[in-house]
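Re: export button greyed out
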Amino acid sequence: MARYSILIDIAKCNGCYNCFLACRDEYYGNDYLPYSAAQPLNGQFWMQVKEIERGVYPKPKVSYIPTPCMHCETAPCMIAAQDGAVYRRDDGIVMIDPQKAHGQKGIVNACPYRVIYWNEDTQIPQKCTMCAHRLDEGETLPRCVESCPTGALVFGDLDDPQSEIARLSAQVQTESLHPEFKTGASVQYVGIPRRFVTGEIVFSDNESECAPNVKVKLTGEGQDRETVTDIFGDFEFEGLDKNGTYVVSVEADGYEPVEIEFTMLSDINFGEIELDPK
Amino acid sequence: MGEKVFTNCTNAGPVSVYVKDGKVTRMRPLVADQKDFRQWTIVAGDKTYSPPRKFAVAPYVHADRRRLYSEGRIKYPMKRIDFDPDGERNPQNRGKSPYVRITWDEALDIVSSELKRVSETYGGAAISGMTSSHHNWGIVGYKMGPFARFMNMLEFTPVLDNPDSWEGWHWGATHTYGFYWRLGMPEPYDMLEDALQNAEMIVLWSNDPDTTRGTYTGQDSALWRQWLKEKGVKMVFIDPFYNYTAAVMEGKWIAPRMGTDTAMAMAIAYVWITEDTYDKEYVKDRTIGFDEFKPYVLGDIDGEPKTPEWAEQESGVKARVIRALAREWAAKRTVLSGGARGGEGGACRTAFGTEWARMMVLLQAMQGLGKPGRSIWGTTMGAPSDTRTWFPAYADPAGRVATSKVANHLPVNPTKQRLWRLTLPDAVLNPPVSWYGEGFCGQSLEQQFTHFTYPMEGYPEIKLFYRYGGSFMGTMSDTSKWVRMYQSPKLEFVVNQDIWFNSETRMADIILPACSNFERDDVGEWGACGGYTCHASSGCNFRIVVRQQKAIEPLYESKSDYQIFTLLAERLGRKEEFTDGKTELEWVKAFFDSSDLPQHISWEKFNEKGYYIVNITDDYQSTPSLRWFAEGRDCDTPDPNNPKRGTIQAKELGTYSGKIEFASESLKSKFPDDQERPVVPRYLKSWEGHHSETFQKYSLQLLSPHPRFSFHCHYDNHTDWLDDIPTHRIKKDGYAWWPARINPLDAELRGIRSGDIVRLYNDRGSVLCCAVVTERVREGVIHSYASSAKYDPLIPGNADSPDKGGCVNILTPSRMVSQHAPGMTPNSCLIEIEKWEG
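Workaround output, generated via the alternate export path:
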């Protein structure tokens, strides 16, 4: 039996919202019973795109996190549901039965990812179905994945070793959006943004030139990393832990070394780090 | 009843339209048979690149169903309640008074008798009319078709199109490297292959291709940039805003003060000259006038060497950053990406924006423009693409109902009088007005030197204004004056024909409901412009010609534009003359028959299947743009409008000298003493920038680029699903506000927080927006997209009223690029911003 999943590569997402809009087009005003009831005009985002802005001028970063139902293996919504209103199909897709789920707001509240939406008018909980009604008709992709221009969304059967998703999942480090929820999310991510530190190295005796190829080290929280500044004298360490404590040290021949200890309360841009001649 | 599937095309991609019980239920990117695609492959190093067999359409296309059934549809013909063609017309109430529903017969009677009256009283030239670009797709129904054909019959005064979006390239770069037949854009051929194989760095200067998407080609090119990123090509973004492409490419961001890009460019040239790192051979053989340019850069002419330190003073960009960029640019094979189609970019839409565009060409000339990896390329066109199979596009004279030879009869308009879109309100309110240039000057450089005055001698002023398809309130400059124009009694009659209520619709006396391209028959190729933007569909991974099938009957009482003009022509006794005896579907077939498609597919099959994919053939030969010029060969690109191609001058560019001109021969011949667009480009301080007097009062610069989730003024206001995208609009207190992005330092100074409703203002007007405090915008700059389609004045019909809808072009200046270059300058705009407590 198949085990359907979506693999989301954050680095490839350009925030075009095609996925969100394709989903809206498929479901707005369209009932697909018994799979799903129509999506209302407001307040539901079965494929929600979350924009994350990090860092400080002039070195910000922007990422997008497409967030559908995670189709968890230990789905809290299933546990909260009564009368089997939420069920998992043999192919792994978690479904809400629109009729049985009538009036069960607890299903919405059970989801730690907040991807189940309450329909005030019809009094039912609603969410992403991975376009199960289309897959059963023979379509190969959910609408969101079909419309992704950059390959940031990959859909397929994890149990089929020939599938792109199985191949990619074997190659890269995948993770759940919130592993701490421990729900066994089927939807997996690559490159979820963490914290980063950046800065620009400047030689105090020659501020009219950038300082390329300067060695910058980062240690702390079990890490020991090294990089060199680029042509603009910029450096960056990405993927640091929230609230982690680190030390950045800078060394250049003929200059006094610099060492800065810091805690990642947020993303950090040191701005100009001046190196003084020895 | 079962589901039926129809094919259609939008301004940003082909779609499959699903219909059940006469209602559209959904729309997908066109679902084509996988066997119809023939995949191409680019080999670069040890990697190969092929696109998936699909169409990556623009975001808003997915919401076309919502737009089709929008509550903003014009449902019936209407008349302004206090308009009486036989009595009081009350033009002062345009924009204020409500409307009453009337029958089609009444509406057609009024419009046709007004056309007749004005024509008989003043002459056909007293009729004028104007259209927007691409609220629809399809060559039969396009504005250059029925609208132009009907208006030509009436001998109207045309409004010249404005090369808006690429002003500086049109009025400037053409005098540096020619390409006037592409309105200042470079050739696009095989630039993707060149970049993948050769580029080491790409400088995206004033360019956000993930937002502007090659204009009509959807998101196919987003994948190309992923390929380049994965390949490790370094990207540098020069833009006051950390734009969406920069965000996904994670390139180096350099944010100059607005209006100072030319200073930065001069400093880059200074570094190359003083460090001897430019391509001297190329400059000697392929350019002229360097000896006049070099002394200016070195400061020999004005005593001001254009050093990086000097540029830092102007631009705020550290001298060392400019120096490092210049050195890397010279050391590495660097593509210059100066706007979505190579040219364009907000930096050219400024005071003296010609100078920046000219400098873009000249900088690349100093590094051997046309050599491998040293191109001018927007990253949105230039996939391997067949150029031998011809299908007419809207800008081809052969692709227009008004001018195509498929017609037995072509009405010719003898009227010589012209209006200029940007000065139309001034022309109505305060004539005479005059300007240089024939709008889109794609026939010759000299077209830019034609002088016009309105009213033209022997012609009347316009009395009847026919507005069709869209609005300019959000897209032209200083747009309050459009409201004033409409309320002038000099316009005796105004008609507005559109599908949706747009910002100018309620300025009309009579409103006529048109239908969309999903409710009528048409044909069109995705992304194809033809004419002066020939082979634009190379921005798509696959060329596809779509038979745009009528999916549903016209909604409410709407009719196709063709049908409306037919009915009007009938009342004028000229039906046959207008229709040429053809129905819309017969025009579709006539265009099909005139094309190369019948060699590949029968009409019956095309009509039924709904599309044909034009693949590249086995013998496809790559001919990278301008490689021929760099190598001193005859032009080998398939650029059909290059007038020297195939002649004894085939090695030459389209400039007077045939070379790249540091000192422009064409400008020298016509305006040798012009200090605002000098023979040799200069950095000129903006008349509305940080040096100007107004800066004391309004110290923030407004940056208003083309929008990310709508197209001109289309989609936005009639597609409310988009309001759920916070990049596009922000919902607050039951209203979807237009975002204005502000740097935290500027925000703090003014007590502004994200989510606050703010007033953007200057002496020209006030616009309310929702503040977004962000590190993505440079200090001193407010970023708010142009093209809001929701002109929503607090006091309807009052030109001075604050607008709640986000039409920030109310704030932008009327002043042109320079005295002889009549382009608009939205990015030379000073404002102030405050929390709105109203």
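The first helix of chain A runs from residue 18 to 27. The button fix ships in the next patch.
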